[in-house]
Design goal:
This protein is of the alpha/beta class. It has 2 domains: about 180 residues, Rossmann fold, CATH 3.40.50.300; about 180 residues, Up-down Bundle (Glutathione S-transferase Yfyf (Class Pi), Chain A, domain 2), CATH 1.20.1050.90. Helices cover about 40% and strands about 20% of the residues. Helix 6 packs across helix 7. The longest helix is centred in the middle third of the chain and has 33 residues. The radius of gyration is 22 Å and the shape is globular.
Length: about 375
């Protein structure tokens, strides 16, 4: 899969325009503030339904405009073409279209264009909070497990309903036996965690092999911290134990919404021992491994969005990363403040290269 054409209108500091990308490596260069990252953000918004910068729609829309529009034409591995479109108003109202027809589910668009990001803050996958790691894990499960979307949606629905019910108790302990959501939460939560664990089992060896390529001296393994609902019998036990606390605070403290993906070095969590550079290597290996696993499962190639190309890695590690990325033969859209040095060996080895210059929100082919 690759993004052939991107159209943006009223998006941040970009001019209204259409851009044709190549199926291989696309290199965007320009000064800071030229609009390079906004182009990546627009693609991410279209493919994943949200920005990687902000949750406020109004900050993405140009001043004096009521809404933004992003549209992309995607070429599938089958040779078919699909046109995805999204508009978002200042109030946050979102409208989606697929081939000109209204689409209710953002997951349909996400499935068509699997996007991976490598941003300057990539190390936060290891060093940051568990929410980011859950999102990383769920992206992978979503793309290889057809039942995951419905299961995750149903779990969130039941969780919200249970939390609302717990708040309505106002601290009154009516007994866990009267919890109307207990059985559904246990069943759905256990199934969701089992899907995550199964996916992680497949990702483990690919991740470790990729990390060895990037940094042979590093040894890291992946572990899933279940959040308490590990199998139906354990889920029932843990949720019962958590009942007094849930009633007191009016919220559910056990479940996959509290789970975590742990990067472990020996018996320690990498977040406690890794430098920022090491954390970025670990994160990069995990993202590359996800792309490889997706291709193995469905013959689908990810689109890599790389902001600040080459940042935070030294020359040796960057060479290993780039070699591994190019082996995947994925489409890449990368930004940099520096013009491309076409004398570099890795550039000469590219089968497909497009270079763009970004200035004052306008993107144009350099050659």
């Amino acid at each position: 899969m690759n993004l052939q054409t991107l159209h943006v209108a009223s998006f941040r500091n970009l001019t209204d325009q259409s851009v044709d990308f190549g199926s291989g490596f696309n290199y965007l260069h320009g000064a800071n503030g030229a609009g390079k990252t906004a182009i990546l953000e627009a693609i991410h918004l279209l493919a994943r339904g949200r920005s990687f910068r902000t949750s406020r729609a109004s900050t993405m829309i140009q001043t004096d405009h009521p809404l933004l529009v992003v549209r992309g034409e995607v070429a599938l591995e089958s040779g078919q073409h699909q046109v995805m479109a999204m508009s978002k108003s200042r109030s946050g109202k979102t409208e989606l279209k697929l081939n000109g027809v209204a689409e209710a589910r953002a997951s349909r668009l996400a499935k068509l264009l699997p996007v991976q990001t490598l941003l300057p803050d990539a190390a936060e996958l290891v060093l940051g909070g568990p929410g980011r790691r859950r999102a990383f894990l769920d992206w992978g499960v979503f793309h290889v497990e057809p039942r995951f979307v419905d299961n995750a949606r149903n779990y969130r629905r039941v969780l919200l309903q249970r939390n609302a019910w717990l708040k309505s108790l106002a601290g009154e302990d009516v007994g866990v036996g009267k919890d109307p959501w207990f059985e559904q939460l246990c069943t759905l939560g256990s199934a969701l965690s089992e899907q995550r664990q199964a996916y992680l089992g497949e990702l483990q060896s690919l991740f470790q092999n990729t990390l060895r390529k990037l940094s042979p001296a590093m040894t890291v393994r992946l572990e899933y911290e279940w959040g308490g609902l590990q199998g139906l019998s354990v889920a029932e036990k843990k949720l019962s134990e958590s009942w007094p606390r849930d009633v007191k605070f009016g919220m559910t403290h056990r479940g996959p919404h509290r789970a975590d993906l742990l990067f472990m070095t020996a018996d320690q969590v990498a977040a406690e021992t890794a430098s920022r550079g090491q954390a970025k290597l670990i994160s990069s290996a995990a993202i590359l491994a996800q792309a490889e696993l997706l291709y193995t499962h469905s013959n689908a190639k990810s689109l890599f969005l790389i902001d600040d190309f080459g940042a935070e890695l030294d020359a040796e590690h960057w060479h290993h990363f780039l070699s591994t990325l190019l082996e995947l033969e994925c489409q890449v859209i990368a930004t940099s403040t520096d013009p491309l040095d076409e004398s570099q060996q890795w550039v000469k080895g590219l089968s497909s290269l497009q270079v763009f210059h970004v200035e004052h929100g306008n993107i144009a082919r350099a050659h």
